Amino acid sequence: EADIYQTPRYLVIGTGKKITLECSQTMGHDKMYWYQQDPGMELHLIHYSYGVNSTEKGDLSSESTVSRIRTEHFPLTLESARPSHTSQYLCASSEQGTGQSPLHFGNGTRLTVT
Amino acid sequence: EDKVVQSPLSLVVHEGDTVTLNCSYEVTNFRSLLWYKQEKKAPTFLFMLTSSGIEKKSGRLSSILDKKELFSILNITATQTGDSAVYLCAVYAGNNRKLIWGLGTSLAVNP
Asked: Which of A47, A82, B55, B83 has the most neighbouring CB atoms within 10 Å?
C-alpha cells in the first residue's frame, strides 16, 4: 500500500499570499512528481524530481517552485497566489526501477485563491 | 506528437452491467500502459501492461493490451455503484520514459 501524504487537504487563501503545499512519502522512492488537475480535465505535470537536489519543470508551465532536500519530502511553493492558481494539486512518487514504475498518488490539495 | 485517447468520454450504466473502456495511443517508443481509477481524490493504480495478449485480472476488473493495433481495453463485469469513477489510461513512452495521460472515461453506475 502506498504511503504518500499531502497537506493541507483543502486551502482557501487570498490573492498575493505565499503558500507551500506539503508532500511526503515513506516508501523511499527516488522519483516524485507534482501534477495539476482542474475538474474534469487531464493531469498536467508541473514539476518532477529524480532524487535529492534534482528538480525539473514539467510539461505545463507553472509559477510554482519545488525543492528536494530530503528523499521523502517534495514541497511546492507559490510565492504570490493568484485566482488562476485555483486547482487541485496532486503529488506522486515512484520507484527508480526500470523507469516505468506505477505512480502512487497522494490525496491531493484543493487550492482556492480568492 | 505523442497522444493517448480514451473512449467513451462518459458512460452511464445500471448495476450489474458489463462495461468496456477503450484506450488507444500513438507514441514514439512505447514502453508500457497503465490504468488508474480516480474517485473524488487521487488516482489509484489498477494495472500495468507491457505485453500484448496477456490479460491482467483483479476481481471484476480485467485489462488487455494489443500492441499491434495500439490499444488497450479495461473490462468491468457485474458493475456496482462503487465502480463509479473516472478511469484514466497512461502510457510510458520514449527513451526518457515520459508518462502521457489520457483525458479519462467518466463512468456512472446507477442502482
From this structure: A47
